[in-house]
Specification:
Shape: globular
Helix content: under 10%
Distance between the termini: 25 Å
Number of strands: 28
CATH architecture: 7 Propeller
Strand content: over 45%
């Protein structure tokens, strides 16, 4: 059986709505799949990340207030009327991603220990500035990626760090796999660690890169590219996919949704872009193997899609309904009691307000 899992944001219905100048929501798929606005968030600012609390059905959300300080809430998914409850959390600024008992911010991570969140600083080389962006956790360990400045230059390079059970330590990447001007943006864990990022090339623009670590050494993963276009990968989700955007060099306003997906039969990565609407994918999730992606159009509307793949390998693209609002999404969770969650903000006349979206799983647990 040929299996190819695609994440592709075509958004044809959304493009038509935007072109017509309407705020109409996308129609749901034939089974009514849709993203919906979740419970009210009792805070000002933005939701930036979320995760499922370890060994429970509790949703944990992280956000950043107008003052730049971190806040967090929990929600019991078994409650008759789910509501977010504020919980204490150390201030680490903007949390970019969360996975299980870990959350990552620019220079420090939060770890859930003995019923509370504890701050652990990332390792930092002398003379550099650090900005970590994504985290992936496994039993007893965790991995994080981001960038660090290159001393004596105006450039940054990608960096990988590993939690060994007691401290964060920099995991060296073999020479030649990362240029002096690069960034690592997202990662996921399977039988090995796969890291996505961007190589900043003076002539070819930004090009997506992928590296794999098998526990003993690093290797470069070949990604297909498009001449004259830049690619950026912002988020990943299992099974084996990365989502972001692509645009002609020098024209980021013409960006299109982009996905890199793994063809499990051939072992090769496939580059898929969506012509039509100018948009980007910023968060990826999986509904029991069905890839989901959500983001926003360049004019600020929410944007979502999924893809079904049948036994013959034929993929059918289905638009998922999104609320008819302006805003952005930064992160998603896996399924918690039949629901996936997304975190971001909505634009209002009074400014940005925290936004929590829910997606009803199409499968029974």
């Amino acid at each position: 059986m040929r299996i190819r899992l695609f994440v592709l944001a075509t958004g044809l219905a959304l493009a038509a709505n935007a072109a017509a100048g309407t705020n109409a929501a996308l129609p749901g798929g034939p089974d009514g799949a849709a993203w919906r606005i979740g419970p009210e968030v009792p805070a000002a600012g933005e939701l930036t990340a979320g995760t499922q609390a370890p060994d429970s059905s509790t949703l944990v959300t992280f956000g950043v207030g107008p003052d730049g300080r971190t806040f967090a809430h929990t929600m019991d998914s078994y409650a008759p009327v789910p509501a977010l409850m504020r919980v204490p959390v150390p201030n680490v600024g903007r949390v970019h991603d969360a996975d299980g008992e870990w959350a990552v911010a620019g220079t420090a991570a939060l770890h859930y220990e003995n019923g509370r969140w504890v701050r652990h600083a990332f390792a930092k080389r002398a003379g550099t500035q650090l900005h970590m962006r994504d985290i992936a956790a496994g039993p007893g360990e965790a991995w994080a990626v981001g960038t660090e400045t290159v001393p004596g230059t105006r450039t940054s390079r990608g960096i990988v760090q590993h939690w060994d059970g007691s401290a964060w330590r920099i995991l060296p990447v073999a020479d030649g796999l990362l240029d002096g001007s690069s960034a690592l943006t997202t990662l996921y864990l399977s039988d090995r660690l796969t890291v996505f990022g961007v190589d900043h090339d003076a002539t070819r623009g930004e090009q997506a890169i992928a590296l794999q670590f098998d526990g003993t050494g690093w290797s470069r993963v070949r990604l297909p590219t498009r001449a004259g276009w830049v690619d950026t990968i912002d988020d990943t989700a299992a099974p084996a996919m990365g989502v972001g955007w692509t645009a002609p060099i020098g024209a980021p306003h013409r960006r299109r949704p982009l996905a890199y997906t793994l063809d499990f039969e051939s072992g090769r990565w496939v580059r898929v872009e969506a012509p039509g609407k100018h948009a980007q994918l910023t968060a990826a999730a999986s509904d029991y193997g069905i890839p989901l992606a959500i983001g926003n159009t360049t004019d600020g509307r929410l944007y979502a899609t999924r893809v079904n793949t049948d036994d013959s390998g034929r993929s059918t693209m289905l638009c998922d309904e999104v609320p008819p609002i302006r805003g952005a999404v930064f992160d998603t969770t896996g399924s918690i009691r039949h629901q996936l969650w997304a975190f971001g903000y909505r634009s209002t006349a009074q400014g940005r307000k925290p936004l929590l979206l829910s997606y009803e799983s199409q499968f029974e647990e």
